[in-house]
Amino acid sequence: MTTIQILVSGVLIGGVYALLAVGITLVLGVMKIVNFAQGELLMVGMYLTLLLHTVLGLHPYVAFPIVVVALFGLGAGIHFGLLRWVVDRGHTQQIVLTLGIGIVLQSAALMIFGGSFQSLQIEPFRGGSIVIGSISIGTTRLAAFVVAGIATIALLFLLDRTLTGKAMRATAMDRDAATLMGIPVQRVYLITMGIGSALAGAAGVMLMPIYPVYPTVGVNILLIGFVVVVLGGLGSVAGAFLGGIIIGVVEALAGFWLGAAMSQIVVFALFIVILLVRPQGILKGDTV
Amino acid sequence: MSQQIVNRSSGPIDPMVRSRPLPKHSLLIGFGVVAIALLAFVSSSAPVFYGHMIVMTLIYAALATSWNIIGGFAGQLSLGHAAFFGLGAYTSSILFVDFGISPWIGLLIALLGGATLGLLIGIPTFRLRGPYFALATLALGIILLNVAVHFRELTGGHVGISLPPTEGWGTMTFLNRWQYVVIAGGYLLVCLLISGIILSNRFGYQLAAVREDEEAARALGVNATRVKLLAGTLSGGLAAGIGTIYAQYILFLTPDSVLGTAVSIEIIVLAIVGGSGKLYGPLLGAVLLIPAGQLVLREFGGALPGLHTLVYGVIVIIVILLFPRGIWGMLTDTAALINRRRKHS
Amino acid sequence: MRLSKHIWETILPFLEIHDVRVNYGEVEALRGATLSVNEGETVAIVGANGAGKTTLINSISGLNRLSSGSIMFEGQPLGDLKPHRLPELGIVQVPEGRRLFARLSVDDNLQLGAYHKRARRDSVKGREEIYRLLPVLQDRKDQLAGTLSGGQQQMLAIGRALMAQPRLLLLDEPSLGLAPIVVTELFSIIARIASEGTAVLLVEQNVSRALALSNRAYALQQGTVIMEGTGQELLNDPGLPAAMLGIAAAAKE
Amino acid sequence: MSKSHFKPVLALALMGTLALTACASTAGDSTSEAEAPITIGVLLPLTGPLSTLGKEMQNGYEVARTLFNEAGGVDGRQIEFQVSDAPTPEDAVSVAGTLSTDPDVTAIMGSYSSSIAIPASAVASRNQMPYWETGSVAAATTDRGLSHLYRTVISAAMPAYSNATQEFISKVAAPALESSPDELRFGLVFEDGAYGTSASDQFKALAGTEGYNLVATESYAANTNDLTSVIERLKAAKIDVLYSVPNINDAILLTQQSAALGFKPAYTLGNGTGYTSVDFIAAVGDTADGLVVADAAPLNISDSLLSADLSPTYSEFITAYEEQIGRKPLTHATLGYVGATVLFQEVLSKAETLDADGIVAAAEAVDLGPGETVASFGVKFDETGQNERAGWFFMQYQEGELVTIYPTALASGQ
């Protein structure tokens, strides 16, 4: 029974990882940029949720659309002002630029909100859990998982069924050919970065009732996000979702069997093994 | 043989290979020694803050210069360079504290350890390209950090290792700072010399060829894997050595302070801002950013927390956008432009 | 100086390329090429490997930046436009090596061909027409483009470009790597497109076929135009094989 | 082109020269008039992950300074702070170096975290600058026998620390569970940082000597975002008493997830830091009720339990703190206040000279009995500079507020 509980918890936390990883993989797949600022975008999403609650009294799930739209704008703005100039450059410059953006967002958060841990109490959900037999499912975590699933399906639908989505995939596959067909590549990038950022915002909203926010909260989650992205196959949206759940479960099981201290080592060692043995990931990067 | 072919090829490496005469290594040594002497004098009489600033600048300059061999010359974005730095710091400190082995011997063992780690990490990871390599090295750095945290009997875990403040040249521990300036400055000079020698040799051209286009380099007969492994070994060894000097200076080690991802990122930022791939780029980056960071932290740290990292981040963004070849690259470009103008007029 | 559009069209050629230079680093790929294409005309560009043909065609579609010179389309300098705006004007390129969106279906590839606003309106009807013109695609409409045979891929690449309703179609080495029987079919399709009034600028290694198809032709060598005339004139010119065999000369550079 | 090899060297030399001129302009004006203020260097982590409690401690310092200055200062001389941020060990070395060689600085106070205190105090001692530690509890801080280091707060290595825990368990916890310590199943959970490991080591040692049945020992990284596996392991071990040593965010996570997963040991004994922070209380609210927390200063005690001579009194301190900060002090603010007040009243005011030797002599002479500080413990330094009278206290969350329950003499509740 305990193992099932561990599995359930792993799957649920995996949903949050998935939500972050889907955004990373989308940007990576379409723009070929490893976005090291994705964790900070999640952090911004968390603070924004907190702010909307403390200032306007909005329930985080009510604030969801506001945060998502705001983060879309932030991501698009980051592309328009900064990333646009480096899409043609090597990945070193891109990575360092996104690192710089991350440092700026982190410092700004520290200056505005201070370094303390702030959490959000929402009465209907706090400590609330659904108990089935001896299995307990945290409602906030369940909500996060459901949102992650819906967001992934919505994104897959967008990529597969709409002209904008097809243009994103076409740009991912062959940027020059896309240009020759009249696809405005920079606008596609802008939208991609906006969606990637909005997904980080969504993850932030869903995480806020689970976990306290502080300026460097994104760093650790981002690293796990990278593991998930590589596991799922760079650029594969469905792979990122699946990878998120796998990593969530692996982390939980390793934590239970070997102790929490070892679970990080296990996760990152697994990461190296995947990189070396199957760098294309479990699903080849063909969704984007 | 391959060097000639590379020389004749028309890729972007061409101007760089052609325009560089053999570095005057003796000049570098001469001026380096004078500069170190001057800095040592300054640090012995200046307030501690400035002495500390000089030592930290030299340490980070050496670290970024060592990263440059693999990250700049060979173009392999290593995001886990703190692994070598930390390995060196822990190796000599554990040998010193637990076995009483002098840090000087510890330094040599650290060099060997770092070089070995560079080789061992390189063998599997150099097969990976672009962002994959960057992510793999990032993960390796995190694994080493977690190992240091986990194996507490050896490393003290997060509690860290506190080194005995026994003064003297034999223990590489001093009350004053000028000795550290001499040691770290001398080490930096060695790093620069090795880098300079690499750049002016066939090895340097081969690294440049691998950086610009690995497939093409292989086609031209460059053994890319071997070249990268050698660069990784040298880079790792040099980074580990500076770890020992750092440990003997700060006298206190924690996993986060020497193995943290933040350390790796700082190294890259210094090199990229200064100009990665250029001999003096990382040094320039350290000279500009480390004192700037320390000054902002001192002036505003208590009142405006976050300002010093904000300044850092903004500088990184501006340099990447405006001077993609780093500040050193921008300066040499400008100098070349002025020269050309002067010739024309 | 302001003349009506009609007058521009009557005095100025449809596409005019004037003294264009393009550099890759320190290498000059085009060194002052001048040529033109009239409305509805089929023009071939022939030359050795490395003569600058692909560079020229990529310069028209905006993928290469000019070091100097100008490219005008109906009196409008193309250098001012973002490359993705060209299909709107009616200039569409079929790039060398097809460059299909391999992991999208045939139908999706066609749909993306009609991305710009004007074409998007007629997208559904356009696809029906393409399927009629290239029936081989009809049966494979839901297949991934990457799984098609070389010839089918080339047909799809042309079909995708036609979806944008081009007035000037740029074709870069369309017959490369195709079986002779497919090449024949391909050239008949190109001829059909040209006959319907679309201007075609064709870069080809298959010199005889290309020249036979064209109204006019240019021979490029080391980035400059060395010969110009009707397709037949060039075919009969004894200097042509030398131009085509200019490989040694080009490589010496 | 070969000339370019000079440039960095010249740049370095230039930097050195700049530094030289800069120092020439800063050194020089050290006046020592009777009315001139006394400068104390404050070295705390005010940014980064340690900043929450670093700031809490700074609050305590500021209140102590305000009250002391209002009361007339040191013979009319006011106390001034030179606040320096030291978020990392590296910065601690830099800041400690600067402060300890600044001729205007009389002594350094700090530093809450052991990872800051250890390197900073080493540098200060090398420069013969008195270092007044008010927050770090790690044994290593005073173990090194540094010449100029004094620690007002308890060391985890002191017998008093373990004895208090042992006594609390046998006299309060076990009776409450209607059992005896050797029949109970103990579990230990801690964050693997410097704080968590050193505190848990002490508990393990105690468990060894007392023969506690320690059935589960779990550690985790403080920045974790899921503790399910840890909680499930503890659950599986069927423990009665949980000894828990978390940081702040993981204290929140542990409490919330334990509730969600239905893990509720009969008795939870938390160790300081995480459980006594404002953030923790704000996050978990009344979920924490019943939780017992051990820390280095008691909270919410009454004036009558302390020495009648104590000035300012406990309630005066609370009032001043509420006025200045806007809420009640927590343990780290209290510890900061106590440390600073002892330095001001007992050392600076009584020292014959305000140089290092005078301060060391005055510090060696401090002799405050129980009840003579607002944290109730006395102050007397042993040869390593450790306050051998520092105490260890147990409090319980009752209706969202921490109430001291042990030592029973101080108990204001239960």
From TrEMBL, chain A:
Membrane topology, as annotated: Multi-pass membrane protein
Gene Ontology molecular function terms on file: transmembrane transporter activity
The entry's localization annotation reads: Cell membrane
Q: Name one GO cellular component term.
A: plasma membrane
Please give the Pfam families that the UniProt record associates with this protein.
Answer: BPD_transp_2
Q: Domain of life of the organism in this record?
A: Bacteria
- Please provide the Gene Ontology terms (biological process) for this protein: amino acid transport
Mainly localized where? membrane
Q: Which family does it belong to?
A: Belongs to the binding-protein-dependent transport system permease family. LivHM subfamily.
**Keywords carried by this UniProt record:** Amino-acid transport, Cell membrane, Membrane, Transmembrane, Transmembrane helix, Transport
Query: Which residues are listed as membrane-spanning?
Result: 6-29, 64-83, 95-117, 129-159, 188-211, 217-242, 254-277
The record's annotation in InterPro entries points to: ABC_transp_permease, BCAA_transport_permease
Q: What is the scientific name of the source organism?
A: Cryobacterium glaciale
What's the name of the protein?
Branched-chain amino acid ABC transporter permease
KW Secreted (keyword) present: no
UniProtKB/TrEMBL annotation, chain B:
Pfam families listed in its UniProt record: BPD_transp_2
This protein's superkingdom?
Answer: Bacteria
Q: What protein does this entry describe?
A: Branched-chain amino acid ABC transporter permease
Q: Its topology with respect to the membrane?
A: Multi-pass membrane protein
Q: Where in the cell is it found?
A: Cell membrane
InterPro entries assigned to the protein according to its UniProt record, in alphabetical order: ABC_transp_permease, LivM-like
Q: Which UniProt keywords apply?
A: Cell membrane, Membrane, Transmembrane, Transmembrane helix
List where the protein spans the membrane: 26-43, 49-70, 77-97, 103-123, 130-149, 178-199, 229-251, 309-331
Keyword set includes Transmembrane: yes
Q: Does the keyword Transmembrane helix apply?
A: yes
GO CC, alphabetical: plasma membrane
Query: Which GO molecular-function terms appear in the entry?
Result: branched-chain amino acid transmembrane transporter activity
TrEMBL record, chain D:
Q: Does the keyword Signal apply?
A: yes
The record's listing under CDD domains reads: PBP1_ABC_ligand_binding-like
Where is the signal peptide, in residue numbers? Answer: 1-27
Among Gene3D superfamilies, the record links this protein to: 3.40.50.2300
Q: Which Pfam families match?
A: Peripla_BP_6
User: Which keywords label this protein?
Assistant: Signal
Matching entries from InterPro entries are given as: BCAA_transport, Leu-bd, Peripla_BP_I
Q: Which residues form the Leucine-binding protein domain?
A: 37-398
Family affiliation: Belongs to the leucine-binding protein family.
Q: Which PANTHER family match?
A: ABC TRANSPORTER SUBSTRATE-BINDING PROTEIN, LEUCINE-SPECIFIC-BINDING PROTEIN
What is the protein named?
Leucine-binding protein domain-containing protein
What is the scientific name of the source organism? Cryobacterium glaciale
